[in-house]
Amino acid sequence: MNEQGTRLTSEPTTLGVVGGGQLCRMLCEAVSPLGLEVVFTDPTPDAPANHVAREQIVAEFDDEEGLKKLAERADVLTYDIELADPDAVERAADEHGVPVHPHPDTLRTIQDKYVQKEALTDEGVPVPAYRAVETVEDLRNAADELGLPLMLKAREGGYDGRGNVPVETRDDYEEALDALEGPAMVEEFVDYDRELSVIAAQGDGETALFPVTETVHEEEILRRTVTPARTDEETRETAREVARDVLEVMGGRGVYGVEMFEDDGEILVNEIAPRPHNSGHWTIEGTHVSQFEQHARCVVGMPIGTTALRAPTVSVNILGDGGPRDVSLAGVDDLLESRAHLHWYGKEEERPLRKLGHFTLTGDAHTDAEDEDEAEKATDALLREADDVHGKLRFEE
Ligand code: AIR
User: Fold this and answer.
1) Where does the pLDDT of residue 195 fall: very low under 50, low under 70, confident under 90, or very high at 90 and above?
2) SS3 69
3) Does residue 241 form part of some domain?
4) Closest listed residue to residue 304, CA positions, set 208, 212, 210, 209
5) Which of 277, 355, 356, 358 to mutate to test the pocket of ligand 1 (most atoms within 8 A of CB)?
6) Which class for 314: exposed (0-12), middle (13-18), buried (19 or more C-beta within 10 A)?
7) Which of 150, 169, 188 is where one domain is finished?
8) Is the pLDDT of residue 1 over 60?
9) Which of 100, 119, 151 is the last residue of a domain?
């Protein structure tokens, strides 16, 4: 916090967060024991974080006035969503002399998926082959070089699979490009063995990696995580090395979600998030310091916490399956009576595949997570238990 180290006083340090969704909500929950407080901006009144933060400023992510109010009330600024406007955040921060972590330049790099891939490639971080495309002609050339199928992605603005269009055949070029707004890029389709994620933390002069987790997606939305990832130790070590290199590229303080493909023992970086990430929610119960507390420690300048695994862990997302309609989830008692830890985000509207909550199951702390057979048996049992309680949840009118 300062050169003499962390000092706890009666005046709480305040984090100013752009975005007040579930990530900001879980950040608030994690930092309260450290005596930190959170003020945030979000355009939706009574956003999920509002139930646990000190204050919400109702404002769009690029609203100059809202961001200035945020900077005025905060000691440090950070984000819960990368749709934040880096220019407006930087201006507000400069006006009030408040630091922003990660740096707005990092946000600029990450916001444009093509620029992000260029930055990673320049530093030798392995990524799937990619090309910038604007026209059908560009797409045809890319398909000639990289083959089909391809994944067409909006360079900016997409998340949770929004803005991604698979291109299967030559007849799809025009329709795929028409489906996206603004500049686009294509990537080779990686026929991966599994997807992995590492939450990587960059503090004030120190770094830490969370254990490698396995992520399971359907329809490009994260469904569940399994930790330790069910792969060999050599691959996990490669994933950690890649995550360390990613931190070098990012430079600034904060936690980063590094999403990867594992393909024949090789690791390719899919995407980076400059913030806590859905693939790290399991750390709330699964590691000594969660990704949320770690993010706060990093941006405030406190020492980094230990990321050691407490026990094998499985987390499952609770996604909307209808709507738009008011949220009403039934069948929750079995979950509450099980050993699962529920995290309900308090969103008002259900929409198909919207992230409305998640739950986490942790195994026996005595399981030797380093022993692959033992860890796999433990996570298999957790997955069965998770399926059981998840299967009983149902959204109703
Ligand atoms: N988020 C940010 N980037 C990706 C995701 N999933 C989180 C943030 C943001 C919230 O999702 O916490 O505020 C928005 O969720 P929704 O359901 O309103 O789109």
Assistant:
1) very high
2) helix
3) yes
4) 208
5) 355
6) buried
7) 188
8) no
9) 100
- CB of 259 sitting under 6 A from ligand 1: no
Q: Is the CB of 354 under 6 A from ligand 1?
A: yes
Residues 224, 256, 73, CA angle at the centre, nearest 5°?
115
In the chain, the number of structural domains is 3
Q: What is the DSSP string of 308-372?
A: -B-S-EEEEEEE--S-SEE--EE--HHHHHSSPEEEE---SEE-TT-EEEEEEEE--TTS-TTSH
Judged on CB neighbours under 10 Å (0-12, 13-18, 19+), 235 is buried
Task: Give the mean pLDDT of the chain.
Answer: 95
| CATH assignment of the domain containing 57 | 3.40.50.20
User: What count of other Cβ atoms lies within 10 Å of the Cβ of residue 111?
Assistant: 18
What pLDDT digit, counting tens, does each position of 221-270 carry? 999 999 999 999 999 999 999 999 999 999 899 999 999 999 999 999 99
Range of the domain at 39: 13-100
Q: Are residues 205 and 180 in the same domain?
A: no
